[in-house]
Amino acid sequence: MNSWSPEALVQKSQEARDLAYCPYSKFRVGAAVLTSDGTVFTGCNVENASYPLALCAERTAISKAVSEGHRSFKAIAIASDLEDRVISPCGACRQFMREFGSQWDVYLSKSDGSYKLMTVEELLPCSFGPDDLRKGISSAGNSKL
Ligand SMILES: [Zn+2]
């Protein structure tokens, strides 16, 4: 996606939503993540007869990107069939996004394509991330215990 727009990213997330595998919840979700080099990866929710194994659309899309060598993201759009309010990522997905930085954009959309823009930081304030873990290792290494 050389010249991207939020609307185009939301459109991609809606196309992914249409592929959702959600026979149990019947709640379709799609996501489209834009990498720093302009590549877009999409994902949908993938449920399972063993319910806890279900994957969210956001984590599917990000995992696809990471497994193809991308770790730097500009934005992610999320779509569902909700008409009266925007779809909001679950707590697990917020933490999953945070792994790759807190200053990138999340477009929360309604089924008509309208959206609300938030950052990962706004969705998960005071978060725990990779830098915190490195600090923990560092201080443990300096411990005199
Ligand atoms: Zn989720």
From TrEMBL:
GO BP annotations listed: nucleobase-containing small molecule metabolic process; pyrimidine-containing compound metabolic process
Organism of this sequence: Cirrhinus molitorella
E.C. number(s) listed in UniProt: 3.5.4.5
Domain of life of the source: Eukaryota
Cofactor entry: Zn(2+)
One GO cellular component term noted in the UniProt record for this chain: cytosol
Enzyme class name: hydrolase
Protein's UniProt name: Cytidine deaminase
A Pfam family the protein falls into: dCMP_cyt_deam_1
Record-listed substrate binding positions: N45, V46, E47, N48, A49, S50, Y51
Record: residues binding Zn(2+): C56, C90, C93
Catalytic center residues: E58
Record family assignment: Belongs to the cytidine and deoxycytidylate deaminase family.
CDD domains named among the record's database cross-references: cytidine_deaminase
Biological role: This enzyme scavenges exogenous and endogenous cytidine and 2'-deoxycytidine for UMP synthesis.
Catalysed reactions, as listed in the record: cytidine + H2O + H(+) = uridine + NH4(+); 2'-deoxycytidine + H2O + H(+) = 2'-deoxyuridine + NH4(+)
GO molecular function: cytidine deaminase activity; identical protein binding; zinc ion binding
Protein keywords: Hydrolase, Metal-binding, Zinc
Alphabetized InterPro entries for the sequence: APOBEC/CMP_deaminase_Zn-bd (IPR016192), CMP_dCMP_dom (IPR002125), Cyt/Deoxycyt_deaminase (IPR050202), Cyt_deam_tetra (IPR006262), Cytidine_deaminase-like (IPR016193)
